[in-house]
Amino acid sequence: MGYLEGKVGLVTGAGSGIGRAAALSFCQQGAKVLVSDIDDKGGAETVELIKQAGGEAVYQNCDVSKAAQVEAMVAKAVEAFGQLDCAFNNAGLAGEFARLADSTEENFDLNYRVNLKGVFLCMKYEILQMLKQGNGAIVSTASIAGLVGSKQVSAYCAMKHGVNGLTKSAALEYATKNIRVNSVCPGMIETPLLNAQLEGHPGMREAMVAFEPVGRFGEPREIGDTVAWLCSDQASFVTGHTMTVDGGAVAA
Ligand code: NAD
Q1: What are phi and psi of 138, to 5 degrees?
Q2: In ligand 1, which atom is closest to the CA atom of 144?
Q3: Which residues of 219-251 are buried (b: 16+ CB within 10 A; e: fewer)?
Q4: Is the pLDDT of residue 201 over 90?
Q5: Quick check: CB of 219 below 6 Å from ligand 1?
Q6: Which of 118, 153, 192, 212 could form a disulfide with 64 if both were Cys (CB 3.0 to 4.6 A apart)?
Q7: 3-state DSSP helix/strand/coil percent for the chain, to nearest 5?
Q8: pLDDT tens readout for residues 103-126
Q9: Rounded CA gap, 109 and 27, in Å?
Q10: Is 19 in the pocket of ligand 1 (CB under 6 A)?
Q11: Would you give the DSSP letter of residue 117?
Q12: Has 156 been annotated as catalytic?
């Protein structure tokens, strides 16, 4: 029996990469899953993968930067499965690669809307539902760039630091309400997002692998399994934590 048996999960950005892997990890541990993304094709593929694995899932389109859509996504999870126990706020994008003075205001605003405001909105509507139920666990995707500085991605880095700030504050506010709030801080994970960053930069893959003390990129599943555990009752005393899953990168 999986450690999320009987629970209901929600994953944003679940049409690809880390989100898809986490939706599958939730399902492998016994949870029913609300799969959400702005990419309907990717979302439908994730639902299909979960069904093939013997799990239960439904898809809902949701742009996490839009409050009404986030509210509707949480409502859909409750309508489909009766409750919301585990929420993974993972949707995100990388944005431009440029030094701060060369980067655009548009890039900053886009990073803000998706990577930070999106997590705020998800937390807000998830917590409102979890308060009604009297239980819940939330994990959001920050990054090692949410813990240390990162060249060429200052806006992304600022928003990921913000995700960790939201996480710690919400964890304190709801600690006595049986709602735990944590984040994961992935290192370099082999996903379409990472591969898009490497495209057209010869030698960059090798340089980034060398940055990982374990000598390889992480697999999306390695984040998904961590998130499933953080959402489970096995992590019942873990809240306000910004957990690195990074092959040792920030320990170096
Ligand atoms: P990915 O591009 O494979 O997946 C991201 C998903 O988010 C896509 O399916 C995309 O459609 C969706 N998305 C984008 N904007 C959205 C919006 N406004 N509303 C809803 N969905 C939206 O990327 P990934 O690598 O799996 O990234 C997932 C998360 O992990 C992101 O928050 C990213 O910042 C973070 N992260 C990734 C790495 C890495 O190395 N891949 C490292 C650290 C953190």
Answers
A1: -120, 135
A2: 43
A3: ebbbbbbbbbbbbbeebeebbbbbbbbbbebee
A4: no
A5: no
A6: 118
A7: 50, 15, 30
A8: 999 999 999 999 999 999 999 999
A9: 34
A10: yes
A11: I
A12: yes
Amino acid at 68: A
Kindly report the pTM of this predicted structure: 0.98
Q: How far apart are CA 135 and CA 70, in angstroms?
A: 19
Torsion of CA 48, 2, 124, 244, to 10 degrees: -100
What mean pLDDT is reported for the chain? 97
Domain boundaries, the chain: 8-244
Tell me, which fold does domain 8-244 have in CATH? Rossmann fold (3.40.50)
Length of the chain equals: 252
231 closest CA partner among 36, 10, 70, 74? 10
User: pLDDT tens digits, residue range 7-31?
Assistant: 999 999 999 999 999 999 999 999 9
pLDDT in tens, 45-57: 999 999 999 999 9
Q: Whose CA is nearest to atom 33 of ligand 1?
A: 92
- Dihedral in degrees, nearest 10, Cα atoms 43, 46, 47, 50: -160
Task: Count the neighbouring beta carbons within 10 Å of the beta carbon of residue 1.
Answer: 7
The catalytic residue among 3, 59, 125, 156 is 156
